């Protein structure tokens, strides 16, 4: 008997028929003697519908009230999923985040989980219940409802698996695993049987939408065995996210290629090249709760430097205003500019550690296609570049081929 | 400065524009210096939509899960209403029933309020907030979400007014007050400026849909000043529900005529006429949580008696099955029959206490129209009769005229 946490995304619970499918799958695991915790998202489209309603009343909705509203999406789904299970003769009980309770900080719309009280769930699991928990939501210490941000249901699933010491956390989605890259861009993309946690983390942070990065971080921190599966296929083992590199001669150097169209580039030109500049620029950005991804600073020849960083497209104008209002005069920068017509492409693989020349191969491949590289950022197992948005698909396709990712 | 609780029904918050209207009205009261608690229902149609979804998954939905699902309707509205207020520059904060907290028993789908914790609301009101509370819902002692049954938002409003010691509880609805009868049936029906609590209680219990009976009971018990108003009119004083009969020569004998098409009649024929029969028949009905309204027992001549009672139409078959399975053989009844083609018509008025002959006037009026009376039930201020459903409108119209209710 194992304890399994299964998380189903919005498309997997999009309508009553699909919810019945989820219930049937849960029933099979139950019949095998497992204890099952089910985490569900809102029915696909619901969260956006609710946000739309909120924006009709307030263009930038008060975040506490927005969380109050959008958290209902998952609350409907847990009730419906529990009904589908009960209809199959399975004991089931739904829980909101607050009922579990999943304690978060009070950063509405992007709260972080602080603690999970597992006692209620444990007692119900031991009494034979399937526990159906609302993803994406929690409660702060004052009893206010919070949400974890887009994709937060994955985080809920992994955090519950960690808190309960589950044997496996299964993430059911509309794809049947993690691919070498997005098959919509490269039809030859291939499903990976397994991928290391570090690679998955890089892929997620670089824009692969299969798993939300925070859920992967959680899984890594608490050593949760994570598996990505399709909710639309009866069979298939999906992709297992492992903690150790397989000792395998055939281990590919590169596991996958991720990309991201959601970032915008902000450049601060002609900054005096002296200590503290990075903090003076990024401090006010952080204060405004804007996430910064890549950061690059070049040393210039004339005692000034150029400073470039990327933020989410939606926050570019906010960041530009902050820099122009509060920073530019203060630090004596010549110019502040923004560009949201960019895309980021990353190659990721633990094999990089033992193979040199990956970066040069990547740059050569892009150069041969005439694709200019605007920014470069590297980690031990990843090389990411920013290119003009219009070259994104081309870049991904040629890199997928150059690193022979279509081979089985 | 007064403390006012305003309750808005589903049609008053049916869409963003109407929610903005609610916010503007609240803003006017706030500008007068009042403290305001707003109680809202789900947007009209939402609760039925959610029940429909639930029934797609389970024909008779598990009540705990049903409450989990349908309580989201009000949760969306409180968030939207708070946003509309904040957009007007008014400090506002939404509360679910659990957040208040409104403690109920655990009778899912028809829970009763046991206690209301007023401390959070008081603190926020004193800090200048408008508190927007979800109607219709609460939480049991184990933290399960409960709902109060149809119309439960009125009960929430009155219960909050009682707990907070509010100066007035205003019930905003799609009619501008309490009428002598339903104007859709009798166009000459007239709005009452005031009505006594007892009359309102009888009208509500006899099928007048303006206020839910439990809210009137609550208002009576805790002496809450209740006013029914239209949310679609800027002006108008609606109908005030008073605690004392006005010392008014012009006080009409009859205040109004209520009717109800929702009941069905169940008759147990040929029951041995001995002690304990009523309990043996109605005990199993009560155990099944079926509400019984009118009860009539005739003494027969041959040592047997006929026993008749009414239940909600939706529960007639359930009640019949219980009687046939568990009761008929046991008590030796000859026959059990049900009839759901009936309607109940009631005349209500405190003036009845000092005027004789109301009953005979009522019976004569119906007889003149050839309307047969199937059952009669009376209280100090009410006479209710059950007639064939097809005569309902005719009965209401002739009684409205006979008691001169159209007169100003």
TrEMBL record, chains A, B:
Enzyme class: transferase
GO cellular component: cytosol
A molecular function GO annotation: ATP binding
InterPro entries: AceGlu_kinase-like_sf, ACT-like_dom_sf, ACT_Aspartokinase, ACT_dom, AKii-LysC-BS, Asp/Glu/Uridylate_kinase, Asp_kin_monofn, Asp_kinase
Residues binding ATP, per UniProt: 7-10, 173-174, 179, 184, 209-210
Top-rank lineage group of the source organism: Bacteria
Catalytic activity: L-aspartate + ATP = 4-phospho-L-aspartate + ADP
Binding site for substrate: 47, 74
Keywords: Amino-acid biosynthesis, ATP-binding, Kinase, Lysine biosynthesis, Nucleotide-binding, Transferase
GO BP: homoserine biosynthetic process; lysine biosynthetic process via diaminopimelate; threonine biosynthetic process
Residues in ACT domain copies: 266-341, 347-408
Pfam families noted in UniProt: AA_kinase (PF00696), ACT (PF01842), ACT_9 (PF22468)
Pathway where this protein functions: Amino-acid biosynthesis; L-threonine biosynthesis; L-threonine from L-aspartate: step 1/5; Amino-acid biosynthesis; L-lysine biosynthesis via DAP pathway; (S)-tetrahydrodipicolinate from L-aspartate: step 1/4; Amino-acid biosynthesis; L-methionine biosynthesis via de novo pathway; L-homoserine from L-aspartate: step 1/3
Record-listed E.C. numbers: 2.7.2.4
Family per record: Belongs to the aspartokinase family.
UniProt-recorded name of the protein: Aspartokinase
Organism of origin: Methylotenera versatilis (strain 301)
């Amino acid at each position: 008997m194992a304890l399994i946490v299964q998380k189903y995304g919005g498309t997997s619970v999009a309508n009553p028929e699909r919810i019945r499918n989820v219930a049937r799958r849960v029933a099979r695991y139950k019949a095998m003697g497992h204890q099952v915790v089910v985490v569900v998202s809102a029915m696909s489209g619901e969260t956006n519908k609710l946000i739309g309603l909120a924006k009709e009343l307030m263009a930038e909705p008060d975040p506490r009230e927005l969380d109050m509203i959008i958290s209902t999406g998952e609350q409907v789904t847990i009730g419906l999923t529990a009904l589908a299970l009960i209809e199959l003769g399975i004991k089931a009980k739904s829980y909101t985040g607050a009922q579990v309770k999943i304690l978060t900080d009070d950063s509405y719309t992007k709260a972080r989980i602080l603690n999970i009280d597992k006692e209620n769930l444990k007692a119900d699991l031991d009494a034979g219940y399937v526990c159906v928990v609302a993803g994406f939501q929690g409660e702060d210490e004052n009893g206010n409802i919070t949400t974890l941000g887009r994709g937060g249901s994955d985080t809920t699933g992994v955090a519950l698996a960690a808190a309960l010491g589950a044997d496996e956390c299964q993430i059911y989605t509309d794809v049947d695993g993690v691919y070498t890259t997005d098959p919509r861009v490269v039809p030859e993309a291939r499903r990976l049987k397994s991928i290391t946690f570090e690679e998955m983390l890089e892929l997620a942070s670089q824009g692969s939408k299969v798993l939300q990065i925070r859920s992967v971080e959680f899984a890594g921190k608490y050593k949760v065995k994570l598996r990505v599966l399709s909710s639309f296929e009866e069979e298939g083992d999906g992709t297992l996210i492992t903690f150790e590199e397989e000792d395998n001669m055939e281990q590919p150097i590169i596991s996958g290629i991720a990309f991201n169209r959601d970032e915008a580039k902000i450049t601060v030109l002609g900054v005096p090249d002296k200590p503290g500049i990075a903090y003076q620029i990024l401090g006010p950005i952080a204060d405004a709760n804007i996430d910064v991804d890549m950061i690059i600073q070049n040393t210039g020849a004339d005692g000034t430097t150029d400073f470039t960083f990327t933020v989410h497209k939606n926050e570019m104008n906010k960041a530009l205003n902050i820099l122009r209002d509060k920073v530019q005069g203060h630090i004596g920068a010549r110019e502040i500019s923004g560009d949201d017509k960019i895309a980021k492409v990353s190659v990721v693989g633990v094999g990089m550690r033992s193979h040199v020349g990956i970066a040069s191969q990547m740059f050569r491949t892009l150069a041969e296609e005439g694709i200019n590289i605007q920014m470069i950022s590297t980690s031990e197992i990843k090389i990411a570049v920013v290119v003009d948005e219009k070259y994104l698909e081309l870049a991904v396709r040629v890199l997928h081929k150059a690193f022979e990712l279509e081979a089985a």
